[in-house]
């Protein structure tokens, strides 16, 4: 009764009674790892959130020395940069120190990169400034700038933290390198253009406008340059002069290279100190009645942390920030992951992107307790940290101590820091983010389309905004990805015989088109007439299956003989969409058709196919039906190098791979691990005694771990291990051309 019910059920769903052995859903489910000890896995997951536990027990004096030097070095750069970037973000200078302290302190507990330094960065600061302006324009004077920035940090940090905890950090992979480089280059140009007026003391226009407008207004305002230019230009020149001189001296005196390196990295602090001292000497007795000075200076910076406590999150403010949250989040995670991967690759370790997102998320979320604004990885400080010999992420604690000392002990001296000097620091740091001509040219050489995306990111950022530049470049990259999937490359292949030492030779398959062969003078022989070989270069999925279907069918119609003689079919009986040749040219068309070979087999190279779906399998069935209708005979479909058992299962379900080929070839067999002893040896010896050809007959009695077995299951003779064996099997079944009568038939006459 049960067997009858099963038989009826199989008939209803169309499951054949005699099926080919393929991978089953049960096999897949058995392969899924089941958590045997949930408590242990939970503890393991929680421990993985704190990578510091993996190396802190091995911390030693040698690591401490490297971390101390690197931490102090980065701290001396971070203090002036942090204040500069806060001003760039339209915030008071102390907020840059808040973000600097929280970033380097919290990150070290969650980091998987020893080189990355977290804190205020130029691109994020510029974005924060634009968001503050946009929110204030829509809701005038409703929220203060620091509150907007702090709320933005909390929301973006929470989103990034969620992405990391859910382990979906792979979404970052959809943003390619040219996009990152493009918007970073455009943003750097945007920032430099906005800081030049402050460097020169030029006022009277908005530096937050589009970059080209700022450049034009700056050029117009050059005659209005003030005394600030003396501090700004001197500081900028000194920063570059110290770096260039130290680099040259390091090359000339390599034994003193370490000394010159540390002199070079202190240039930010040194220049700011000298400019501050000059500002104090010049301005201290020149205060006007209105409380201003001849040059713009930083003035009062509050000492220590102000109003530390739980952040105040206004729901209405979060709603107002809604349109700007995506771009801020993208910058937050994208810049950091790119920097972390870059230094991991250079220094020989691998980062965990999800854990890095967790670190960024926690840093920004907890940073709001100290009223910090969004912080992420800094390329310049990370490079400095790496060059200083950092050994572990613990160096961030020493950097935090430097920031803390500056915040509590040096704020009175910050009063006299000239704004033009801070602009010089920003320009000097950001200019290195601009892609070099050689880097841009490398994009062109590798992929001209991606170069155009890079160029679009730069131009849109310069002529519009950072936000539009990011959206434009990401959208273009996704569109390019979809086009590459939907319009895949594929080639009809021919044979080339390679020889070595005039004795060894082998056949390889290359595209028939001459421009697709490495050497254009190589002779490419087409397959045996009646055989077509086609190679996929993408997965065979629903976006591209229709195009591949058209390519194969069109090739068959153009190059293979039509099996139906239309001259014997009345016009009324011909299909409306394929009427065939007219009476006037039927003779010439029939003669041309008879010159073409009869289609026997199509060989599909699946070595580039990793995925297949229902729509593409149906398209392949349609392809088979169309070519068989054209040839008016059965056509064999051979498949080479099927990568996945699920692809094999899908093809078998559609009726491919099974059946009886025109010519039976001997199966290729391969040895397996043998286990000697007892019944195994006897069965193996029995199988060997009857010959290699009869091993298949003993396959059911042979143990699966002894002797030899076919490398491809014999029940699917149209599936082949490699392309050569597939083509040989297809060519073996080609009929010899029959002699056709050259005289026209009486009916034709």
SSE topology sketch:
Elements: H1 2-13, H2 25-31, H3 38-48, H4 61-88, H5 93-110, E1 117-119, H6 122-138, H7 145-165, H8 177-200, H9 211-220, H10 228-252, H11 257-265, H12 267-283, H13 315-321, H14 325-347, H15 353-367, E2 376-378, H16 379-387, H17 395-409, H18 411-414, H19 419-430, H20 437-446, H21 448-463, H22 466-486, E3 490-500, E4 504-511, E5 531-536, H23 545-559, H24 586-595, E6 601-605, H25 614-631, E7 636-640, H26 645-653, E8 669-671, H27 679-689, E9 708-710, E10 719-720, H28 723-732
Parallel strand pairs: 5-6, 6-7, 7-10
Antiparallel strand pairs: 1-2, 3-4, 3-5, 8-9
How far is the N terminus from the C terminus?
67 Å
Structural class of the helix and strand makeup? alpha/beta
Strand line-up of the largest beta sheet = 4-3-5-6-7-10
Percent of residues in beta strands? 5-15%
Number of helices: 28
Shape by Cα distribution: elongated
Which range best describes the helical content: under 10%, 10-25%, 25-40%, 40-55%, 55-70% or over 70%? 40-55%
The major sheet is characterized as:
6 strands, mixed
Mean pLDDT: 85
Q: What integer value in Å does the Rg equal?
A: 36 Å
Q: Using DSSP, what is the number of strands?
A: 10
Low-confidence stretches: 676-680, 686-702, 736-749
Comma- or semicolon-separated keywords:
alpha/beta, 28 helices, 749 residues, disordered C terminus, six-stranded mixed sheet
Brief characterization of the structure:
With 749 residues, this protein is of the alpha/beta class. It has helices at 2-13, 25-31, 38-48, 61-88, 93-110, 122-138, 145-165, 177-200, 211-220, 228-252, 257-265, 267-283, 315-321, 325-347, 353-367, 379-387, 395-409, 411-414, 419-430, 437-446, 448-463, 466-486, 545-559, 586-595, 614-631, 645-653, 679-689, 723-732; strands at residues 117-119, 376-378, 490-500, 504-511, 531-536, 601-605, 636-640, 669-671, 708-710, 719-720. The two termini are 67 Å apart.
